[in-house]
Design a protein that fits this description.
mainly beta
Length: 126
């Protein structure tokens, strides 16, 4: 069974840092495009960051540029989301996603991803 398991969420204060990890199981995701999405309370799921499978280039939502960084450790088959200078508006459930086949223009769209984790809660207090 293919699974993505997120970890690293928690309750922090404004300005703090967290590092989320996504550890797939059941297959290797080293050749997939990997993405992070989040769902703020009462809102729809939104794109946060993606790591393009071919070039390793990274892409970010404007709201997190300069504060978040997505990376991949192929030896551990793990993808990370480093989140610095957290703000209350970053609060939400964060999901890891994998896309074996996706065109670059679709990486911002959750429907382009085939595999999803169960999510990890991030709460930033003011």
């Amino acid at each position: 069974q293919v699974q993505l398991v997120e970890s690293g969420g928690g309750l922090v204060q404004t300005g703090a840092s967290l590092r989320l990890a996504c550890a797939p199981s059941g297959r290797t995701f080293s050749r997939d495009t990997m993405g992070w999405f989040r769902q703020p309370p009462g809102k729809e799921r939104e794109f946060v960051a993606a790591l393009w499978r071919n070039s390793g280039n990274t892409y970010y939502a404007d709201s997190v540029k300069g504060r978040f960084a997505i990376s991949r450790d192929r030896t551990k088959n793990t993808v990370y989301l480093q989140m610095d200078n957290l703000k209350p508006e970053d609060t939400g459930v964060y999901y890891c996603a994998a896309a074996p086949t996706i065109i670059l223009s679709n990486i911002y769209n959750s429907r382009g991803y085939s595999y999803w984790g169960q999510g990890t809660q991030v709460t930033v207090s003011s």
